[in-house]
Amino acid sequence: QVQLQESGPGLVKPSETLSLTCTVSGGSVSSGSDYWNWIRQPPGKGLEWIGYIYYSGRTNYNSSLKSRVTMSIDTSKNQFSLRLSSVTAADTAVYYCARAQGIEYFHHWGQGTLVSVSS
Amino acid sequence: QSVLTQPPSASATPGQRVTISCSGSSSSIGSNPVSWYQQFPGTAPKLLMYNDNQRPSGVPDRFSGSKSGTSASLAISGLQSEDEADYYCATWDDSLNGWVFGGGTKLTVL
Fold first, then answer.
1. How close B26 comes to chain A (CA, Å)?
2. Does A46 touch chain B (CB under 8 A)?
3. How many angstroms separate the CA atoms of B91 and B103, rounded?
4. Which of A13, A35, A92, B100 could connect to A100 by a Cys-Cys bridge, CB 3.0–4.6 Å?
C-alpha cells in the first residue's frame, strides 16, 4: 500500500519561502504511470491544485501560482518537494501531497500538513 | 470561485437517496474523466469514485457516479449517518492545462 507523508515547517513568515517534502513509501516515485502532486486547502475552504512533477523532472503548475512555485523530485530518496516563494497570509492552508494516475484521479493522499503564514 | 460548480450543501434522512451535482465545461468534464473524493473533518480526502463511475475497492455500492455532457453526479443510496462528510468532484481541464476541483458539498444526514 502506497503511503505519502508531508514534512516541513508549520510556520512561515510573510515574504519568505514555504518548503515542504513528501516522502513516499510502499511505492516508487520513479513509476512511469504516476504523477506526484501538491494540493492545498485553506482553513474552511475547498481544494486547490498547486502542480505536479513527473519522475523525469517534468513539471506542470497551476497558472495562478506558477510564478512562485518550484517542484523537484529526488528518486534516490523517493521524495518530491514543493517550494512556494513570497508567501502571504493567503497561502495559509493544509498542504497535501498526492499520487495521481496520470490525469485521471488522485488515488493516494498524504495526511496533510498545516502551514501558517504569520510574523 | 471554483471552475467546477457544486451545491454548497445537501441533506437527507437515513435510508434516503441523495444526489450531488458537479457542473463544468467542454474542456473539463466534457473531455476528461471525473473523480469524486470524500473528506471528513481534519482528514485528507479519500478517492470515492474514478473514471466517472468506477468505485475503488472497499467503497460500498451504495455510491454511484454518472456523467452526461459537461455535468457529473454522485449518488448515495441507503444513506447512513457515517456518510456525513464533504464531497468534492475533480477533473483535468484541457484549456487550463491543470486539475480543477468543485467547491465541495457538505452532506448532512438529518
1. 16
2. yes
3. 13
4. A35
Query: With an 8 Å Cβ cutoff, is A92 touching chain B?
Result: no
- Residue to mutate among B99, B100, B101, B106, with most A CBs inside 10 A, is B99
Three-point CA angle B24, B92, A98, nearest 5°: 125
> By the CB < 8 Å criterion, does A107 face chain B?
yes
Give the 3-state DSSP-derived string for chain A, with helices as H, strands as E and coil as C.
CCEEEEECCCEECCCCCEEEEEEEECCCCCCCCEEEEEEEECCCCCCEEEEEECCCCCEEECCCCCCCEEEEEECCCCEEEEEECCCCHHHCEEEEEEEEECCCEEEEECCCEEEEECC
Please tell me which of the candidates B47, B97, B102 has its beta carbon nearest to residue A60.
B97
- The amino acid occupying position B47 is L
- All cell numbers assigned to A27: 511505492
C-alpha cell at A85: 516563494
> Is the per-residue pLDDT at B2 higher than 90?
no
Q: What is the pLDDT of residues B40-80, one digit of tens each?
A: 999 999 999 999 999 999 999 999 999 999 999 999 999 99
Per the document, the length of chain A is 119
